[in-house]
Description:
transmembrane helix, transmembrane, single chain, mainly alpha, membrane
Amino acid sequence: MILSGLAFAVLVWGSLAAVAIVFAFLLVMLARGARAETDSAAGAEVQP
């Protein structure tokens, strides 16, 4: 009984951690993409 509860808790926390890691990774990639776009736009404006 205790072992099954522990396994369930590990499964829940593991899935939450996986979702958090994926969300953070996507957020970082999105931030990098937006930053690269703004940098390229600024560079295009500076160098006609």
